[in-house]
Amino acid sequence: MKKSTQQTYEELLSPELLNSVDGLILLSKMIIGGYLLGQNQSIRTGQGQVFRQYRSYQPGDDLRLLDWKMYARSGRYFVKESEIETNITVKFVIDASASMLHEDHHKIKKIELARLMATTLGHLALEQGDAIALYAVNESQIVQLSPRQHRQHLHRLVFELLQITPGGGFPTIHNHPLLYHNQGGNKEMIVFISDMYEHSGEIYETLEQLSALKNEVLFFHLLGQNELDLNYKGTVTLEDLETGQRVQVDSQKVRKQYQENLQQHLHQIEQKMLDLEVSYNLFSMSDPLDKALGDFLKRRQRL
Amino acid sequence: MTIQNPTYLWALLGLLVPLAIHLWSRKAGKTVKVGSTQWLIASENTRFSSLQFNEVFLFVIRTLVVLLAVLILLDLVQKQPADARKMAKTWVLTEKALLKDARVRPQVDELVKAGASLHLLEPSMPLVSPKELSQETFPPKEKAALQTSSDPKVFTSLNYWSYLRELDTRVDAPKKVIIFAQNNQQRFQGTRPNLGLEVEWINLPQQRKQVFLLDALQLPKDSLLLSIGMSDESGTQVIQEKIGRQANTKIKDLPSVIVKDAQVHFAQVPNEGIQIRVPTPKRVLIVYDQAYNLDQQYLKAALETVGEYMQTKVEAQTVAWDKLASRNQNQERLDWAIFLGKASKGTKAKPNISNQRIVQQLRPSNQWFAPDEAKPNVYYLQQRVNPEINANVLKVTFLEELTQLLFANPNAQERLSKFDQRQISLGQVSPQKKLETDNQIVNQNEGESETQSYHLLWWLALVIGIVVERLIQANRLKV
Lengths: 303, 479
Prior knowledge:
The structure holds two protein chains of two kinds.
Chain A: H1 2-12, H2 15-18, H3 21-32, E1 45-56, H4 68-74, E2 78-83, E3 89-95, H5 110-127, E4 131-137, E5 142-148, H6 153-163, E6 188-194, H7 202-212, E7 216-223, H8 225-229, E8 235-240, E9 246-250, H9 251-276, E10 279-284, H10 290-300
Parallel strand pairs in A: 3-4, 3-6, 6-7, 7-10
Antiparallel strand pairs in A: 1-2, 4-5, 8-9
Chain B: E1 2-3, H1 16-24, E2 30-34, H2 41-44, H3 56-74, E3 76-79, H4 84-88, E4 90-94, H5 105-113, E5 117-120, E6 127-128, H6 130-135, H7 143-146, H8 152-157, H9 160-169, E7 176-181, E8 198-203, E9 210-219, E10 223-232, E11 235-244, E12 248-249, E13 257-260, E14 263-266, E15 274-277, E16 282-288, H10 293-309, E17 314-320, H11 321-324, E18 336-339, E19 356-360, E20 369-371, E21 378-381, H12 396-406, H13 410-419, H14 426-429, H15 441-445, E22 451-453, H16 455-477
Parallel strand pairs in B: 4-5, 4-7, 7-8, 9-15, 16-17, 16-18, 18-19, 19-21
Antiparallel strand pairs in B: 1-3, 3-22, 5-6, 9-10, 10-11, 12-13, 13-14, 14-15, 20-21
Helix pairs in contact in B: 3-16
């Protein structure tokens, strides 16, 4: 069932759908269809409106939690437990630098995949009862959306996602202080989507700050399959989208060296992310989005 | 296989182009925009560290394309055996002297071998059999024809047009003649004939320039004024050199001049000597009436000027018509008499006081002097020698014509004709409508039916080669 759904959404992946509100929402529904079953209840218990269970009193429990009516009926001490309402905010931080315009062999840009990823996870978060917010930034543009929990907020999120115009580099930490503004005061889960191309450690510094605020940070490192493999044919001139630098390469000859360099770089990033306690996920553009959903839900359960 | 345009063999250097491309291979390839190139820079530097030969198949295709283009330029043709029956109706005409010429003999042999019959380019056009040709025992000829073309009489009497006219009327006239000859201008006299023959002229350009003595004039102070002619196929020019009358004189860029007794010759051709001409003063009498007073003054001045230029004294005297009778005619010998204006009444109109006369007779012409058609040595002065009436008198042409008339040198003219090497272009010598301008014997000998050109094949292969090369290249650039 899940496999057939995945195939269907992948078949529908096209720049036209990825650049429209309805298209993005349709795709997100198709992706999360299988995940919503049984996932709409909190698994933690505590104080709340929805009753969950009775538990025997144990020394140390607050006496105010004792259900005296139960004691009257049974003569034993029981504590009444309800589901806890976590009420968190899922904030999507999207790197809107020019490098996100990189295309994979399927002619899908990174930014388009980032939009789909944010829409899908946002959809899932709303279904879970969480608020969703957006913060996309580059050197010349800031696109942001305040956290809300309404179902209609998904449309706003998608609309704002489509307003993102990648360009320039990722700004330094001092140029986007609004990123840390937590309006609702709720706990936040930050979903950071970026290709991690930085010039002076600006993305890393941002992650450091976010992590220091004791937020749960989930980092999706988006890379094209052609970036990972350098599987171009013959001699090509590669142009850096951010710096404009051009490099002529015979891909066959430099592939091995390049992959070694890249793997070393990825390993360094992973180490840094572990230091920051950021959940790091390398996500190839040819990977199915279900993988991202799995990581997201696993992380969500910790909150 | 024969190469028609060997000059284009230079184009083979074009093969270096694909070789260079494939050795260096610095083609940028397709440009792809990527997120970052920071992991590529380190590996890029090592890429061109040494020359490497790459894309062998593409190189082969490109080389073939260049080769095919060169082949098309070279105009490679396949020579096929000539049709013997066709050649049997072909005559090869040439002068006897030219049969020993290395430029002619191999081609003549080839044509005779192919079936053409060889004839000498002489009035009777005698046949030369292959056996006679190999043994070089040519048939007897008339005395005049036996002489070499260096004999001036024979030389100037050669007239190709008349030979061809005669050939055209013969019963055994061939359909085609191939003529090996030097296209000296003076051998084509008269109008171009309209013949039924197909004629192909094979031009034989002169191998070197002719330098010859035209005239040697004795000057005062024991010196000579030499007129030296230089002639080649493109033109003839005459220069004048003044030398001392010593035995051997070296002139810059010219052979040494030997002066012996009353003769002068170039050192290497003692047989071609000329007599030293001693200038004799020319006596000219100008008879005029009063209306031509200014004319006679100008004419007299012009005569003296010309004499000075020609290093010969001109003694010009003037006398009015009415005083002509009283002049003692027996006193002096006159070279020329010039009559200006009309004789006054009672005077003999044109007294016979000189063999050579010039009579004023105005005619609408640009020429100054015109000969009388009936009387030799009588010329007409067709314009007034008066600057107030005729401004042309101040132009140099008047003096030129006057010089030619007064100082005509028949010996020098004859020598000039003898040594004149000027040739007329092949375009002018063909008596037929069909014209062959190429002087390559290969072209001349082979009609289209006798050669097989592979042009179409080469072009087809070239186009296919270019298409294949483009397809491979486009496929290579796909990423």
